[in-house]
Amino acid sequence: MSTVQDASSVSSLFGAGTTATSKTSTEETQNRFLSLLVAQMKNQDPLNPLDNAEVTSQMAQLSTVQGIEDMNATLQALAASMGVNQMAQAANLIGSAVLVPGDSISPSELENVMGFELSRPADKVTVDIFDAAGGAVRSLNLGPREDGVNLLAWDGLAGSGEAAPDGAYTFKINASQGGEQVDSTVLHLGLVNSVSQNSQGVQLNLADNKSVTYADIRQIF
């Protein structure tokens, strides 16, 4: 009489305990397992019957594999649903101005807003504005400022008191408390032109050809 005695061979057939690389579906795996189990029971040696504990263990492994596959499918569906919802929410921001990390500024209206985020309060804050060539244009003493997001608008004047010509400028923040440097992040205003999605999630595409994520937004106007 032929026998199918080694219950551990079940693992090799449906891949339990290994990474999920098998091309067979869960249903096919179940069918193969049950067929093998029935064959084992029909052809077992009466003097050396199947170990119930081993069979139970194999069935538990099969259940675990199926459970993991079901959970993965559920998580994938949830992630896809969240992506669609985020895209819909992001679309509502088209045409809005957002305050995001960046050091660009211009004398032009709406482009003259400067922002910065302080990690803690500072008793001395200065802003230095530079032209496209890196030359100093103006320095502003803002005095003490609270932690968090702070905003100000450049009046478009250079240090000489004359109007700065149109163009691209940058700014830098220097903040200190009791003579010790305070960490800061420079922020600028950007207009949301469109939204898109890539491997990093939903992206807000700004008018200056820069893309940011939801996490980058400090304020919405």
Write a compact overview of the structure shown.
This protein has 221 residues and is an alpha+beta fold. The protein is built from 3 helices and 12 strands, in the order αααββββββββββββ. Strands 1, 3, 6, 9, 10, 11 and 12 form a 7-stranded antiparallel β-sheet that branches. Strands 2, 4, 5, 7 and 8 form a 5-stranded antiparallel β-sheet that branches.
SSE blueprint:
Blueprint: H1 9-14, H2 26-42, H3 52-91, E1 97-101, E2 104-105, E3 113-118, E4 122-130, E5 136-145, E6 148-153, E7 169-177, E8 180-181, E9 184-198, E10 201-206, E11 211-212, E12 219-220
Antiparallel strand pairs: 1-9, 1-12, 2-7, 3-6, 3-9, 4-5, 4-7, 7-8, 9-10, 10-11
Question: In words, what does this structure look like?
Answer:
- With 221 residues, the chain is an alpha+beta fold.
- The protein folds into two domains: 9-91; 97-220, Immunoglobulin-like (Sandwich).
- It is 29% helix and 33% strand.
- The chain contains three helices and twelve strands.
- The chain has helices at residues 9-14, 26-42, 52-91, and strands spanning 97-101, 104-105, 113-118, 122-130, 136-145, 148-153, 169-177, 180-181, 184-198, 201-206, 211-212, 219-220.
- Strands 1, 3, 6, 9, 10, 11 and 12 form a seven-stranded antiparallel β-sheet that branches.
- A hairpin with a 2-residue loop joins β9 and β10 (201-206).
- α2 (26-42) packs antiparallel against α3 (52-91).
- It starts with 8 loop residues before the first helix and ends with a strand.
- The model is unreliable at 1-24 (pLDDT under 50).
